[in-house]
Structure formats: structure tokens, C-alpha cells
Amino acid sequence: MASFFNSLRGRGRRPEPAAEQEPELTPDRERNGDPDDHSEPEQATDDLPSIPDSGRDSSPNNAINSSRSTYSSRPPSLLADFHNAAPGMSEDSKFSIVANFLHMKQEEKLWTTGAPGEGVFLKKRRGSYIACPETLRCDGSMTFEAIHQLNVKAAMTVKTKVIEMLLSDGEIPFVQINEGLRLQIIPDIEALPYCQKHQSAAFVLSDKMLVVWDDEPHMLVKRAANIDDALFNMVCQGPPLNDKLDRDDPQNTHFHWQGIHEESEKDERRSIVIWQPFFTASTLILVLTALGSGWRQICTEITMDGDFKRLLFLLCAIPQLWLGLFFFQALVGNFAQIVGCVGHMKLNTKVYSGKAPFRLCANDLPHVTIQMPIYRENLRTVIAPTLRSLKAAISTYEMQGGSANIFINDDGMQMMSDEEAKERQTWFDENNIGWVARPPHNPDGRIEHKPLHTRRGKFKKASNMNYALRVSTDVEKQLTAPRYDWQRENNDWSQQQENDAYSAELAAIVDQNGTWADGNIRIGDYILIVDSDTRVPSDCLLEAVSEMEKCRDVAILQFASGVMNVTTSFFERGITFFTNLVYTQIKFAVSNGDVAPFVGHNAVLRWSAVQEIAYKTTERMVLPVRDGTEEQNLVLEDVVDTETGEPILDDITGRPVQQPVFEIQYEEIEKYWSEETVSEDFDMALRLQNVGYIVRLAAYQGDGFKEGVSLTVYDELNRWEKYAYGCNELIFYPLSSWPKRGPLTPLFLRFLSSGIPLPSKLTIIAYIGTYYALGSAWILTLSNYFLIGWFNGMLDHYYIDSFKVYFSIVCVFSALGNLALALMRYRNNEGSIHGNLMENFTWVPLLVIFLGGISFHISQALLWHFLRLDMSWGATAKEHSLLPFFEEVPIVLRKFRWTFVGCGGVAGTMLFCAYGLDEMWRIRFFTPVYPLACVVVSHALVPVVLNPNLMRFTW
């Protein structure tokens, strides 16, 4: 039992996370049902008096000392107040009422025998607990001290005959309470602070009792009752799976079931599907046929009149091929969805998982780190709900035998006010969430009391994650330093010693360059990357780990996602439809053999693979100067008033305020995510595939993984601009670099020469071409207006006017595309034909206006990169701001002033050409006017009719 508990105290030598909330103890979720219910938990039948949001607490092994210099420390945690307390009632009285109420329920359900160590515990504030009965504080049982170190809001002991019977066999390592779910057993109450706290319960072997805890006191009785009912049902149905008699029976042992799963995994064959290569070949046939018909026309005309100048049209062949590839690919895909095979969407292939893998049954499952980069999102309404979803998933995974931690990469904390930063730290401390916050962008030192620091990249997510991962790996390097070897070699290295060493090393690294950090920031075997507005299924980690463990060549397991709506606005619902449409098309393509995409979130990464493709760059670092002693103390200097030149004195001590002395050094930095490109996810996937790994798309979770979409038309346009900028950045250098470097980037050349299958390369190139097709639409349509308007009938027959192109796009995308989507979903048992068609065509007007009105914005992004002009994007808004009509109007005019100027200029030109010119030069007929009018109207309507704040007409 001692050896077992040593492994329990810290699986994989990781500091244990804090107590977190788990889902209800139910069997594994049915695959055909809702994989995850993210609604708030229902209140227990036994309603409790409301209590204030008590003070926050931190881990007993807090890695950060609050008394550090201005540059190297984070602000101390904020003590909570009690504004919500009932008038006329003291804080202690209110907590006493709640504790007595819970203890009354405990006695009512016969969960206590009155022995020492049994009762209810409630946290009032940091470091202060109330117990009922009061004798728990000094009854010698050590239960009160253990709960205090466990650092939970509410806890209760449960002692029944069933529990005593289950714990009578002292050899069992855990208690199986449901199929696939189990609860930990600790040897004594002193081991409670080191247990797997995400399970929210633990059996204490020495005392033959159960300890249950929860973040919400009103859920404590319900949680204990769920466990008690599960134990009773287990006893009634038969002996537990890990009972001593079962272990003697080879037909019922854990190893027997593990063998069944291993045998099933061995028999599984993942085939390579070639339908998508066939579709790509058909696309090329259509493209070349269309181009060939035009070339045939050129040859015929040259034969008739001998004018070889028409051969200049061949210069347009490559742009035509590139821009038209996606159009014909959509045409072939539509017919494939109508009459082709859709059964592969329910099967497993080399790059696609349509059904869940067999679950691992090992006792030591791999550790998973959930990495979440955040910026300045609201803690209560955006970040906290996401973290609650992640904590539920961790709880389930721990009850299945695994371990996990949450790693926050906070890019906004050091840019906030002290109050906002303290609120985040308090919340993270209370839930024992590891986090790293880098210094703000301060390359020239204009931000006072902050070190010199450069946040690289136009889209800061990559550099944020690189920085946090570097801090984590630096801590790991220090923990493997030779100074700890003698303890390991002499078997004198306990988990508590490692926790202490970890805290010391993290504090030392934090002191170096203005980093703020705390909690468990160590990286496990796998990394689940999520966004700040994500919801995950409560039972997703085991299946992901099982698939990654079984397929060692999979570096990225990308989960298909649903959409999490936060408003009921028509724009968000329209973008939700479009996002679901995109994921449906991706699943269809990948299940038929296309390469799986990596979208940068809701994906599991193999940490060893990411480390394998890391690269190093030399960067200027601003580091504090040390005094050279054994303690390596910081060299300090007085802070001087810039106006008077005199030292600034402390208001309390009267002594000069001091700050660390910094020096500039050049260091070789290891990076994982590309900071040079906007599309860091594409770069990561490409580098992994170049060294032999594969990216796989998992669709068996259904819509369990949910992501937020753009809430405003501003954010959606920014998203498209960023994608267009990133695509141009992947392929082309800015024009100023062409004379020295050539037009194509090394990344694109590596992509062309990579081992990615040729059909998938063509699919990716076709996707990239859509941005150039959209960006050039307004330019080509404007040119067509004058060419057809003034030279109609005199143009070469090789030229196709915009109206014919417009009509083709409407037929293929708006008509045939929606029909094919409805039929494919119907054939895949997703709704009825009538319902699908109604939904699809409902959103056609919105998408027509939006896609017709983004050409100018995309072309701006493309041009800005070609000209090396600065263009940056902030984080997408996660909360919708409701503004009155007349407050929204100035915002629209400011953001879209050049769009309105352009639309007004083109509209004025069309009116002048229709009425102001001589009769022979007037342009009034339908063919040239209609396409340009559609472009102008769409651009003008996008910020108006797609803006819920305007369309709500609130004054």
C-alpha cells in the first residue's frame, strides 16, 4: 500500500492540482446521445442558505513568493469581500448556519457515527475554516488539518456500513463505482492533501470512511448522495470488479478486459481511402477541359485571321487555373455528396476517425495538459465557464485512472489594472490552475515599472504559447540538474521534495525577466489546446489518449467542433450555420481520403512530436543582473524621478525605492510555434508532416467540442482578413523582397516538396486560391463594367463576362451546394430533407450579402502584405455589446469609412456613365451593370444590415 500511495501522491512526478468539480457519477455516455451537457448543475433538493463568495486560497505549495521586486513578482492575491452577505448578519454567523445545515443533512442520512474526525467543513476565507461539530478542530483526528491543506470550499465525511465493507480488504487500490469510473483510496487522512483532487472524493482506508468535497456547498449533499447510491447499486448487483474474489477469477479480472481491448486494437485496420484523389482528378479534368476549350477558340481564331497576339491570353492560364480550381472542386464535391459514398463518415481510416477507439484500461494513463491561451476576456462570463467545462473533463479522466492539469497562457494579466489581475490570480489560485503571464509589449521602455520586452508576431497567440512553454521547459531543465541527482540515486526523493524543488525553481525563473507565474505549469505526454470560449465533452480525454497511444504516428488529433452560441442575434446564428457547413464539408473530404486540417484549437498534440520539430532563433533578451554570490541575488538600483533626478522615497519607510538592474544579452531561444506567420497552425502541421507524422480528424464526439464564433460583423471581417493575409504570407514574399529572394517563400516550397499527397496539395492550393478569387472580384467586376459597357461585341471570345461568372457561382454554390448539403446530411441521418433544405436556404441571403461584400477587405489584406504595411488584429470579442442605434452609427462610419467612400465613388461613376456621357458611351444595359451593382450594394450593406445593433433599432 505504501508503494501504491507513493505513485498516487504524484503520478509522473507532477505537482498535484487543486480540488475541482466533477460530473455526476454516471456510466460512460451513450455515443448516440448528447455527449456533453454543459448546462449549469441543478441545485440539490436540499436547498441551502446562500453564502457569500468566500476568500480565495492558494495551493500550500505556492510557487511564488508575494514579496518580490516590482519587475519579477505578480501582485498579491486579492482577499474577497462579502458584499453579498445578508444585511444584519455577520459573516461568521452565515457560514455557521450553512455548516450546521449541512451537518444536519449528514446526520439525517446516517452518514456519521459521531466519532472523531467526522463532520462538515466550510471555508470562510483564505486560511480560515469552520467545522461542524466544533470539536473537529481539536479532536486529534487530523481531519480538520487535512481539509485545510486540501484547500476546498466545502467538504463532508461519509461513513456507512457499505463503505466499511468495501474497505475491509486493505489491498484494493481503488473502488469501482460505475462502469469505467472509480474512486481513489488513500491510506490515511494525512494523505488527503496529496490525492487526485479532481475526483472530488477519496476513501480513507485507516478510518473506513469517505471524504467528499465540492466547489459549491449546495452541491455537496447531492455529490455524496450520488456516490452513496452508486456504491449501494454496485453491492446489490454483485461484487466490485476489483474485489479479491474477482481478481482470482481470470474471466473477470481487469487484465482480462484489458486483453480484450488490446486484441481488438490489434485487429483494427485503418485503410487508405482514395475517393478524394478521384474527386481531385475529376476536378483537374474539368479545369483543363474548360481551359482547353478556350485555347481551342484561340487556335481557331488565329487560323482564321493569323493574329498571333491572342497567344498573350496564355499568360492568364495559371491564374485562371488557380482561381477556378475551387469552383470546379465544389462542383465535383456537390455531385459526390448527392450520389457518392457517405458511409466513410462513420468509419475509421488512416486520417479520419468516425467511431471512437477502444479505451485503454491501464492503471497509469498518460498525463494530459490542457493549454489555454487567453488575453483580456472577461473572467466570470468567458474564462470561468470554459474552465468549469475543462475541470469536468479532468474529473472524469482522473476517475478513469488518468491525470491532467490546466495550463493558462495569460497574455493580458500584466496589461490589466491591479484589481483585475488580482481577481484572475485569486481565481486561478483557488482552483490550483497553473498559469504564465509574460510582460507587456514594451520594446522601448515606455511602460513604467515593466521590463523591456518584445511580443513578436502580428497575431500574438504563437509567441504567447512559445513563451509559456519556454518557462515550463526551463523549470523541467532545472529539476533535472545534477544537484538533485544524489537524492534520486539514493532513493531519497519523495513527491513532497519534488514539489518543494519545483516551487523553488519556478520562483527562481520568475525572478529573471518579469514573468508572472504560479501553479502547476508542467507539460504532460499530450497537450489539449483550447480557446478561451470552448466547451469540451466531460468524457473526451480517455478516448483521445487511447487513440494517440494506439497510433504513435499521429501527432495531432483534431476534433470536429460544434458552435457555442452566446447570443440569439441573427448574425451569430448565420455564422453558426456557415461554421457547421464548413465542418461538414471538412469531415466529408477527410473521410474520403483528404489530409486532415489543424485549426489551432480543440486538438490534442503529442508533446514529444512538438519538441521534435522545435527550432531555435537568436533573440535579444533583457535579463536582471546578479551579484555573483552563491545566492545569486539581484543587483538593485534606486528609482529616480525623471523630472528632478532625485531618488523616489517609499511613503512608509522613507527609504529609496529600488528596482533590479537589467542588461541586454543575446540568447538562443527554442520555439515550437511559428511567430513569423499569421497561420501558425498550418506551419505546425506542415513541419510535423514533413518529419513523418500525420494529422487525424476525429468526428466521433459529434458536437461535444464547441467553439465560439464571431459575434459581430467586425470580428468576422477581421477573421477573413487575417486568413487572407496569412495565405499570402505563406506563399509570397512582400514585393520589395522579390529582387533578392524571389516571389515564393521557403515555407511554400517546403510544402510543395513535402510528402503530403498530391491530391491534398491541390486541395490546399484550391482553398488558398479562394481568397485571391474573392479579393480580385471587385477589381475584375469593375473592369468588366467598362469592357462590356464600351466594347461589347468587340472583345475576343476567350473573354467571359462577369454576368456569366456570377450566374455560374449562383448555380454551383447557392443552388446546387445547398441541395447537396441537405441530401448528404439526410443520407448521414442528420435531419430530414425538407428541414435541411429549409435551414440551408434560410441563410442564403445573409451569406450572399456577406461574401459579396468582403472583396474589398480581402484585397486590402493581400495588398497590405505585398506592400509590407502594418496590419494587426486583436483577440476576437467573446462578449456581445448591446449599443443603441445612434451609438453604433459612429462606430460603423469610423470602421467602414473607406468602404463607403469607395461604394459612393463607384455608384457615382455608374450614374455618370448612365446619364452624363454622350449617348454612344453610356452604359445602361443589364449585363455590365448588374454584377457591379451587386458588388457595390453588398459592400454597403454588410456593416449595416448584418449589424444587430443597427437592425435592432433601439434608441
Question: What would you say this structure looks like, in words?
Answer:
This protein has 955 residues and is an alpha/beta fold. It folds into three domains: 172 residues, Class II aldolase/adducin N-terminal domain (L-fuculose-1-phosphate Aldolase); 310 residues, Alpha-Beta Complex (Spore Coat Polysaccharide Biosynthesis Protein SpsA, Chain A); 222 residues, no CATH class. The protein contains 30 helices and 22 strands. It has a nine-stranded mixed beta sheet with strand order 8-21-14-16-13-9-10-11-12, with helices on both faces. It has a seven-stranded mixed beta sheet with strand order 2-1-3-7-6-5-4, with helices on both faces. It has a two-stranded parallel ribbon with strand order 15-22. Strand 9, helix 10 and strand 10 form a beta-alpha-beta unit. Helix 8 packs across helix 9 and helix 9 runs parallel beside helix 23. It is globular. The N terminus is likely disordered. Pfam families: DUF7928, Glyco_trans_2_3. This is Glycosyltransferase 2-like domain-containing protein. Keywords: Membrane, Transmembrane, Transmembrane helix.
